[in-house]
Amino acid sequence: MAMGAVLSSSRAFVSPLSSSSSSSSSSSSSSAAAGRQQRRWVCSLVPGDRNGRQITRSTDTAGQLSAQAQHYVTMRLCDASLKRRVLSRVDCFLSSADPLTSGWHRPRRRDSPDTACVVAQPEYRVPARKRADFRAEQYEMAGSPSDVPATAADAVLVGEASWWQQLPKRWTIVVLCFFSFLLCNMDRVNMSIAILPMSAEFGWSPATVGLIQSSFFWGYLLTQILGGIWADRFGGKVVLGFGVVWWSIATMLTPIAAKLGLPFLLVVRAFMGIGEGVAMPAMNNILSKWIPVSERSRSLSLVYSGMYLGSVTGLAFSPFLISKFGWPSVFYAFGSLGSIWFALWQRKARSSPSEDPEISEDEKRHILGGNTVKEPVSSIPWMLILSKPAVWALIISHFCHNWGTFILLTWMPTYYNQVLKFNLTESGLLCVLPWLTMAVFANIGGWIADTLVAKGVSVTNVRKIMQSIGFLGPALFLTLLSKVRTPAMAVLCMACSQGSDAFSQSGLYSNHQDIGPRYAGVLLGLSNTAGVLAGVFGTAATGYILQKGSWDNVFQVSVILYIVGTVVWNVFSTGERILE
Fold it and tell me: What pTM was computed for the model?
């Protein structure tokens, strides 16, 4: 850790913008003196030995510097009479009314004996936090800590920290949630690849394969609302950790269950759905407590892009593992990764900033934004929640959104093969493209949404703009899809449809935390239940439509639902808090 000190302007430090020439006029000298009286230096000192090596700065239980550090720190840095000088790095923040002189400066030594230190070229230093900070107010030498800007007082830097230590604690939570969603979809999509050699080995019919694939949704539907209730009552950390461990164990048990018999496999797949069903409500709960509204869209977009990249990873690595080690290896390899994530989650995550002993007070104030910390939910006001038009806008819009999304992602390989005449290998490779497109555009949309909020656009308008893009973009490109005549243009329309669809992460997927942060888990559970039902019914309805009609009819139904969702969302949604 570095020792921070507040120093008044003196001969030891000379501003790089003030006159240093001995031939300056008296008026310039008096003017410079007046300027120096209004300036304050905030300096951070990294003690070193005579060879310039940084000494070890250990602290005792009382938080005091070790005797070795005290020996060098207490020596006066700029006294020319010292026979042995401390070789240290000093970083100074000049607080001045003049914006041209305010900022970070790095001093350097001058060989002249009358001035040991002089400020060289200005250089901005990004503050690097450590767990124990020696703040300026603890070692004040002159002036009052209140005179120093908060950013300067907190930037007691020095030393080199890993990127993990420098990452704000709230973004550590976001990164861990990202990897949990990456694992979520890796474990989900591996069955779509492994089912081919499994059905050949066990002699399953197409009807049996469909039954196995659908068994996942039995458990997934069951825990959407329950997961939200548990997260709002017991905290997102506990529920999300439980979910990852549960579905990881179920993934690793899949090969054993398959060899025992079909009923065992169906139960294990349903159990896996139970674990993954709590993931989204629990994540929504924990981010509602950790992320301020100005960063909400970016954080959620990053987490949801983990799902998209998880699908890409699963589809890319599953064929390789199956060809090299057999189909059971996919479930063992992917399932075991959950234990690594859970160890990091237990060590680094907390359900809220108030429970985290490592978070700084500045970051906690930034997250809370002046709001008080409320107790966990003890009961769910169902009548109040269901009486709000904005809640029903979420539920209906989620249904309309997922109808089109699930159809495209489920039936896309068939469309490529039957309509565009791609072979199965080409179809599989092209199925990865929409997931990559969604991962990229979800984060672009999150950045745009947070930028608009920062510029003063109301949260309500931002959510309506982003979700309108998420609805009307796919509607436009699916309409064009029925008009194109070349496979290349068809693939481009499909990718653009999914790319614009990803803007929904900054629309309806962020809105649960806007309207009711305390009930964010329950709200997402409600709307995502409708979304999962849309996927189940939409996938089945598409098969029926194709028997009686064509792909143009499939796309027309999706376009109609996208337009309905756009109208409902823009009329009834809001970005204001309506549930306390």
Answer: 0.64
DSSP 8-state assignment for residue 143: S
Q: How many angstroms separate the CA atoms of 493 and 474, rounded? A: 9
Return the C-alpha torsion angle 381, 387, 389, 393, nearest 10: 60
Contacts of 403 (CB under 8 A, 6+ apart): 534, 535, 537, 538, 557, 558, 561
Distance in angstroms (rounded) separating the CA atoms of residues 482 and 477: 9
Task: Give tens-digit pLDDT for 170-228.
Answer: 889 999 999 999 999 899 888 888 888 898 899 988 778 878 887 888 888 889 889 98
Residue with tokens 């009286």: 37
* CA 383/CA 229 separation, integer angstroms: 15
* Residue 119 DSSP symbol: E
CA distance 53 to 398: 59
pLDDT for residue 547: 80
Taking the CA of residue 21 as centre, how many other CA atoms within 13 Å lie in the half-sphere pointing to its CB? 6
- Cβ burial of 199 (10 Å; 0-12, 13-18, 19+) is middle
pLDDT at 194: 87
Residue type at position 444: I
Whether 534 and 399 have beta carbons less than 8 Å apart is answered as yes
The CA angle 400-402-404, to the nearest 5 degrees, is 80
Report the C-alpha gap between 165 and 163 in whole angstroms: 5
Predicted local confidence at residue 11, as pLDDT: 40
DSSP letter for each residue of 322-390: HHHH-THHHHHHHHHHHHHHHHHHHHH--SSGGG-SSS-HHHHHHHHTTPPP-PPPSS--HHHHHT-HH
The conformation of residue 45, written as its DSSP 8-state character, comes to: E
Which helix (H) or strand (E) is 443 found in, with range? helix 424-454
Assigned token pair, 473: 């973009």
> Backbone phi, then psi, for 109, in 5-degree steps?
-85, 150
Report residues of the chain scoring pLDDT below 70.
1-166, 370-377, 413, 423-429
- Copy the structure tokens of residue 156: 């007691």
**Cα 249 from Cα 241, distance rounded (Å):** 12
Q: What is the pLDDT of residues 337-383, one digit of tens each?
A: 999 999 999 999 888 888 888 888 888 888 877 555 556 667 788 89
3-state secondary structure of 59: strand
Q: Give Dmax (Cα) for the chain.
A: 99
- pLDDT at residue number 260: 94
Let me know if 459 is exposed, middle or buried by CB neighbors in 10 A (0-12, 13-18, 19+): buried
CA distance 418 to 315: 21
pLDDT of residue 261: 92
The DSSP bridge pattern shows strands 117-122 and 3-8 to be: unpaired
Instruction: Give me the residue label for tokens 């069955």.
Output: 191
Task: Choose among 484, 480, 493, 473: nearest CA to 433.
Answer: 493
Helix (H/G/I), strand (E/B), else coil: 75: coil
Q: Nearest-CA neighbor of 298 among 38, 503, 436, 107?
A: 503
Collapsing DSSP states into helix, strand and coil, what is residue 5?
strand
73 Cβ contact partners less than 8 Å away, ≥ 6 residues apart: 3, 45, 47, 65, 86
The pLDDT, as a whole number, for residue 433 is 82
Strand order in the sheet with 40-46: 3-8, 40-46, 89-95, 103-109, 117-122
What element of type H or E holds 224?
helix 206-234
